[in-house]
């Protein structure tokens, strides 16, 4: 399991996390250690986040993947985590500080 407590990612009582924290959390679900997040790995990350809005992990994962997978290869790579962080903030209620 990723080191980050699942509640940290969505609990509104808790301070927002940084983009770097989000990336670490996400990459904790890189089960085959290929440096990419697949659809199923993203789904698992969403399920673990335990947020009330994340009830349909399959669909939400699919939409998130669609939004963040900029080169359409079916994976989230290092350069696409920013797009996913922005998507997660807007659509999944994640509290992420994104510094431009
Ligand atoms: Ca992977």
Automatic annotation (TrEMBL):
Superkingdom, natural source: Eukaryota
Domain EF-hand: 17-52
Record's keyword annotation contains Nucleus: no
SUPFAM superfamilies: EF-hand
Pfam families: EF-hand_5, EF-hand_6
Keyword annotations from UniProtKB, A to Z: Calcium
GO molecular function: calcium ion binding
Protein name: EF-hand domain-containing protein
